[in-house]
Design a protein that fits this description.
single chain; 522 residues; mainly alpha; two-stranded antiparallel sheet; 19 helices
């Protein structure tokens, strides 16, 4: 079992509940008095309330996998993590889905995006579920006394910033609501991408002094705030038009030098069912918790594990699963980074080349709707890296949202982009540490350039919710300078319009708040 559990979810959901997500701009705290009474009578209840909000990034709802915190949204399809993977990986070059679901199919092919796509709405709704919950609890804690009050408030501010980060990255604008807006029923004005950026930056800088250096597994510490801020700065040129690579390097150096993290000796352990107890735990900076018994969800790593398996070509129990949904396959844009055939992947020394199931599958994805076209990725699995494991219906593998290898590659990218406070020698050493752990050949200084970094991020981090953002930052997501299978709905890939660098604001959100305007091109 995991160290942080979602306790008393039914009660806590009722206490924290606001109106439906489509009306999330009405931020009246309808149960604030009840929360104050609860925390006055039992200050330790703050632990359960906080865990409910942590769980909002991986779970669908308070009453099991069939429930949802966002009324009107499908409980299985709409959880936050599932949305991150859908919008960051399936829209990019690394992963494709074959189910043909309306909305998901448009993501897979990067075609026909519009404001009525339910998968865009799901992620938008999740942002505006999590943010008001954080606001509500932050406000309540100002009127009661609970243990570690300042730390808990800082953790909530981190979670709110994390939700806003995905709003900034995927949609570029929205409504900025904080605890100061509670009680107002007047729809707020739209906040620009730069305004949201400035708010999140300010929050993450402020809480670094009040978050602990170490915290319970799955909870935010100082390094989590620094890592998120580094990601914000790394993409600042995209978000605001002004590069902040020096600032990104400063934050990432704090993570590397002061966080106490080390690379896991076994790459696969990072994505296995025991990643919360094996040596992988020492690399994971921030994890989204999964548990097959106490926090079941179709939207956490169950989606990644079961969605990538099928009994037609694979043995499910080898991966700790009881069901294979036969949906997700990687494309040659990912596995060609290791070799140009199944034989070359099998012969590769790089352990990351063996993340793909090739038997019975075709190297070329001639038809993305055919299961055997393309290689399923078995990076995420529900089986343990150490010892035996029992197959379960839901995954117990935690999702490593932030980890040290990513920090190492971010450091190197900042140096290559001109951050003066970094060291070219350290950048090379960090990249080679990542490669050596994977049993890949070390590179020389002459090999280290931005194109190499983008490829190495693909080898190391694909299917972890980063790829779309990476391609946009490198100028390779839209247009036709870089093509991948089924980009633009064409097997060989074709150019997609520049406005696809942002997703459209969902129609229902715009109907709920007339102050919102649509992103250009939609």
């Amino acid at each position: 079992m995991k160290n942080i559990k979602i306790k008393g979810l039914g009660l806590l959901a009722g206490l924290l509940a606001l109106s439906g997500c489509d009306n999330a701009f009405n931020t009246e705290p309808k149960n604030q008095l009840t929360l104050e009474q609860l925390l006055t009578e039992d200050p330790n209840a703050i632990e359960g309330l906080l865990s409910k909000i942590y769980g909002s990034f991986a779970l669908s709802g308070a009453n099991g996998p069939g429930s949802t915190d966002t009324p009107g949204d499908d409980a299985g399809e709409s959880p936050f993590l599932r949305g991150i993977v859908n919008l960051q990986d399936f829209s990019a070059d690394d992963m494709k889905n074959r189910w043909g679901d309306n909305g998901l199919d448009q993501l897979t092919t990067a075609t026909d995006w519009d404001d009525n796509n339910k998968f865009f709405r799901y992620l938008y709704n999740r942002v505006y579920y999590t943010v008001p919950q954080c606001n509500n609890l932050i406000a309540v804690m100002q009127n009661v006394s609970v243990p570690n009050q300042e730390q808990y408030a800082s953790e909530l501010r981190f979670l709110r910033s994390l939700a806003y980060y995905y709003l900034i990255d995927c949609f570029g604008k929205g409504v900025l609501v904080t605890e100061a807006d509670l009680g107002s029923s007047i729809p707020k004005e739209q906040a620009t991408r730069a305004e949201l950026f400035a708010f999140v930056e300010q929050e993450l800088l402020a809480i670094q002094s009040t978050l602990p250096v170490t915290n319970g597994y799955g909870r935010a510490n100082k390094a989590c705030a620094q890592m998120l801020l580094a990601k914000l700065y790394l993409n600042a040129e995209v978000y605001t038009g002004t590069s902040r690579y020096e600032d990104a390097l400063t934050q990432i150096k704090h993570v590397i030098d002061e966080g106490g993290y080390t690379l896991a000796p076994d790459f696969q352990s990072l994505f296995s069912g025991d990643n919360n107890t094996s040596a992988a735990k020492n690399e994971i900076i921030y994890a989204l918790i999964a548990d097959p018994i106490t926090s079941q969800s179709y939207g956490n790593t169950t989606y990644l594990v079961n969605g990538s398996l099928s009994a037609d070509t694979m043995t499910l129990s080898n991966y700790g699963a009881t069901a294979g949904w036969g949906g997700h396959r990687s494309t040659k844009a990912w596995y060609s980074l290791f070799g140009n055939s199944a034989a070359e992947l099998a012969a590769a020394n790089d352990v990351r080349a063996h993340l793909f199931w090739t038997q019975g599958h075709n190297y070329e994805m001639n038809d993305y709707k055919i299961w055997k076209d393309g290689y399923p990725c078995v990076k995420f699995r529900n089986s343990n890296a150490v010892g035996t494991s029992i197959a379960t219906d839901f995954s117990g593998t935690d999702f490593p949202l932030f980890r040290l290898a990513d920090a190492y590659l971010m450091y190197a990218e900042c140096v290559l982009r001109g951050a003066a406070n970094g060291s070219a020698g350290e950048a090379l050493a960090y990249v080679n540490a990542v490669r050596t752990r994977a049993n890949a050949t070390a590179i020389s200084a002459a090999d280290l350039n931005l194109n190499f970094i983008l490829d190495e991020r693909g080898r190391e981090l694909n299917f972890e919710g980063h790829r779309r953002s990476d391609l946009i930052r490198f100028g390779k997501f839209t247009g036709g300078s870089y093509l991948w299978p089924w980009k633009g709905g064409v097997k060989e890939g074709t150019a997609i319009p520049e406005h696809y660098n942002l997703y459209p604001i969902p129609l229902k959100a715009m109907q709920a708040n007339p102050n919102l305007t649509q992103n250009p091109g939609y």
